[in-house]
Amino acid sequence: MARTAVRGRLTWQVATVTSVAEETDSVRTIGLEVPGWPGHRAGQHLDVRLTAEDGYTAERSYSVATADGEPVAITVERLDDGEVSPYLTADLRAGDELELRGPIGRWFVWDTSDGGPLLLVAGGSGVVPLRAILRHRQRSGSDVPLRLLYSSRTLADVIYHRELDQYRDGAQVIYTLTRSQPPGWTGYSGRVDAAMLAQIAWPASQHPLAFVCGPTRFVETVAEQLVAVGYPPGRVKTERFGGT
Amino acid sequence: MMLDGNAIGGLLHEVFGTEMTDAEATCATCGAVGPLAETVVYLRGPGTVVRCRNCSGVLMVISQIHGVNCVDVGGLTALDPRRAG
């Protein structure tokens, strides 16, 4: 009866891994079957808890990679000195069980009623919750104009590359590669800066809504620049990750 | 590790019994008002420290002692959870 005990209570529960799919050399998407999952909103995350034989536990948060109404999935980047991600990206198999709780978050969330135009800015695996927003927009038939600026080290590090290249109908994905660019690269090069944002960001006069997700330094730089060009701080939603 | 209030959404829910990332926090040091999601959060210390993004004042400290969450909210003058939409 635990599941029906208190509505809205966040409790740890056991999910089953339904699939694992490699996105890049160091990133994989893990499909999950979560009994009684109440549904999630684009941008939310969940907490994963691993317990060692001696009882030691480690918890980490991962963004839900899918849109509302789709099966739950998380996309995890392997950090070689991490405590949790090496297990999730190397050892975990379909059929394995995983302890988690969620969905979590109500601030870094986009619903179609929030409108736009939307500016999404991703650094590395910060693209995960923004991909959920893209998918939610697509699945709900929303025509809110959307631009995703995605900063990645190299082309091989771009997560969801094939999917992101397919968006049309008012959704535009723009890449910048910071470390190396393949021959004939026509996207941006280098870190996201004020000049790049000036070309890509919707003018503040259009009352855009921005979501910025990535490593702490990346998020702070981008958020400061957006506020500097007139985005009200309350319209720049940020989520920082960092990791072990 | 310096993150933000989103990272402790689960812990906040555990402590307050409801979703708190969009709760509005008022800093006792400088008076700044903003959602908990946008605060500065230090994880993995002896406790979780939540600081004001405007003045860096400590808003809240959550420590776990023998499995019990101890919460110090002395740095807040107000904390308003929004009504669930």
Oligomer: heterodimer
User: Which structural class fits the helix and strand makeup of chain A?
Assistant: alpha/beta
Strand content of chain B: 35-45%
Considering DSSP H and I runs of 4 or more, what fraction of the residues of chain A is helical? Answer: 10-25%
What is the level 1 CATH name of the largest domain in chain A?
Answer: Alpha Beta
Largest sheet of chain B: 5 strands, antiparallel
Mean pLDDT of chain B: 93
H/E series of chain B, N to C?
A: EHEEEEEEE
How would you write the strand order of the largest sheet of chain B? Answer: 1-4-5-6-7
Word description of this protein:
The complex is a heterodimer of chains A (244) and B (85). Chain A folds into 2 domains: 13-104, Translation factors (Elongation Factor Tu (Ef-tu), domain 3, Beta Barrel); 112-241, Nucleotide-binding domain of ferredoxin-NADP reductase (FNR) module (Rossmann fold). In chain A, 18% of the residues lie in helices and 33% in strands. Chain A is built from 5 helices and 12 strands. Chain A has helices at residues 85-91, 127-139, 161-165, 194-200, 216-228, and strands at 13-22, 27-33, 45-51, 57-63, 72-77, 97-104, 118-123, 146-152, 171-177, 188-189, 209-215, 236-241. Chain A has a 6-stranded antiparallel sheet. In chain A, strands 10-9-8-7-11-12 form a 6-stranded parallel sheet, sandwiched between helices. Chain A is globular, with a radius of gyration of 18 Å. Chain B is built from 1 helix and 8 strands. Chain B has a 5-stranded antiparallel sheet with strand order 1-4-5-6-7, with no helix packed on it. At the A-B interface, strand 3, strand 6 and strand 12 of A face strand 1 and helix 1 of B.
